[in-house]
Amino acid sequence: MGDNTTDWSIGIKFVQFQKNSSLHAGIRKSPYAAMFGYEAKVGLTSSSLPDEVIQRMQCEDDLLAVLTTGQNGKEPGPVPSAESAEVHFDMERASPENNLSRRENNIIARRKGARTSQLAQAERMVKRS
Hints:
There is one protein chain. The protein is mainly alpha-helical. 63% of the residues lie in helices and 0% in strands. It has six helices and no strands. The protein has helices at residues 8-21, 31-36, 51-56, 60-69, 82-93, 96-128. The radius of gyration is 20 Å and the shape is flat.
């Protein structure tokens, strides 16, 4: 960012993601996981592309070909986003209500764990001072 002083706001998103997805010593998990109940997803493995399509890719041109022609090589159109793929994947395995309650329980459990860790960290800080 030192060389690019005019567009520093572009790089701040990467810094923010790195801070939110790295392990926090106090809560013993990433802030992203504490907030949303699961670790942040990055890269092609978190996309809606099937594993066999990802494994066949050798270069960026292969990815561009999939994005412009579709996964089966016949349907034009973009690949669905990771969020829509996750919802579709979850709906195949469980009912939406069951999936939602499971996700909510996971978020609640992670937030309770983060709160407990923060309280323990605060107690250690008080003892040290």
